[in-house]
Amino acid sequence: MCVLAGNLRAANVYVDDILSGLRKNAKAKRIDVLIASSVGELIALCKKHGVKCAVIVCYSKAIALETVEKLQREKIHPILTYISTLDTAYPYSCVVQDYAYPFYRLLCAAIGSGSERIAFVGNNEDSFSDTVRKNILLKTAKERGKHCKVFQNRGELSDCISDFLTEAEDFDTIVCANDIVAVLLASRLENGEKYEVIGFGGMLIGKNMFPSFSSVCSDFYAVGVNVVETFLLLEKKEQIQSVKMTVESELLLSDRLAKADGTIMSEDRARPARARANDFYKSDEVEEINRLENMLLSADNLDVIILKSILRNEKYANIEEENYLAINTIKYRLNNMIKNAGVKNRKELLDLIRKYNLKL
Fold it and tell me: How do residues 252-298 score in pLDDT, each as one tens digit?
């Protein structure tokens, strides 16, 4: 299987997770995965190995369209991820996330709970998913007679957030381009409980912040797994011209929305994919958020109990007695959390948790 992996300048494009799922399933099916760095190299690899289909991971819509047309001229069938609609007569296949309808449901729930003035913060014009969600938001707000304003991210995320904060009092609902933006913004908001914040990506940190925020949880690993299934189907069945496969997204509700409308989505959900950030979102704070998210993903219920106790300044002896744990076990688990959070010691871990106002 020949793959061209690109970068969309957006923190919520989980290229690594798609490739992880792809490689895992390909290995199970005994398929070699070859990664190309350009369209020319992709075409050369396909011809060398006699492959009829090529995979394009996370390219912008314009680049995807150009790549599809180049591949089809060489009689190579393209399989896209992330992008489902292209303005071309050439056939192509795709494996995508169904995030548009869950996002619409989330907006309706927010508006139904009293939202009147909505901001979309961190919009990246190069991102296909940002464009889709922006258009859904603008259309929904117009239909419901709600005020809406878009704050663009033109490369400096901190500037975009600062621009919004100068007008924050004019809004009651904040829709963020992704969970990275939501975490950074929520940590800087004054009187954050006044706002309904909505992210995108399904990071656990959003559920554990105070106040918590809602998010669409996308399983990009599952996209990668299903790319392999699509590839096998197309390689084996020549009469099939194209395939569209959609992987379901889920909703993570803030405490406020969950209470306002408990029917919108069950609390049962899959464990979300790990967060990735690329060059467009590189900063010390983004790295902190990703490290904290990785720690939360790795922690179990016992780890959380230990953290809560330490945050209450309880002594190891008290934690040992209350939870029937050996002190060495407590220290071992705490050291693992320190390691997973990428900090040096217990104090730095607690400072990081307090910085983002986690309510463990």
Answer: 888 878 776 544 444 434 344 444 444 445 577 888 888 898 899 88
Domains, the chain, with CATH or none = 2-96+219-247 (3.40.50.2300), 100-218+252-260 (3.40.50.2300), 279-355 (1.10.10.10)
Which pTM was predicted?
0.74
Dist CA 15 CA 300 (whole Å): 26
Which of 101, 102, 63, 103 shows the shortest CA–CA distance to 83? 63
- Using one digit for the tens of pLDDT, what is the confidence trace for 47-101? 999 999 999 986 677 888 889 999 999 999 999 987 888 888 889 999 988 888 8
Say if residues 151 and 174 touch (Cβ distance below 8 Å): no
Strands across the sheet with 196-200, in order? 147-152, 117-123, 173-176, 196-200, 214-217, 250-252
Dihedral of the alpha carbons of 269, 261, 97, 209, in degrees to the nearest 10: -60
Whether the Cβ atoms of residue 360 and residue 208 lie closer than 8 Å to each other? yes
117 contacts 194 by C-beta, under 8 angstroms: no
